[in-house]
Specification:
Elements lengths: L1 H15 L5 H24 L4
């Protein structure tokens, strides 16, 4: 998913520039991965709904 990957780039940028802490980075990255997995699963099962 393109927008998710773009968001991850900005997340890495924010961490690298010390706008967020490493702990914040890990938490947000985990939430992004969870959201991405849910969106992917929804996309894969869309026709079955």
């Amino acid at each position: 998913m393109g927008s998710l990957e773009e968001t991850k780039v900005w997340l890495h940028f924010s961490r690298d520039c010390s706008y967020i802490t490493q702990d914040e980075f890990i938490l947000i990255e985990k939430k992004l991965d969870e959201a991405g997995a849910k969106i992917y699963k929804l996309h894969e099962n869309w026709r079955k709904l």
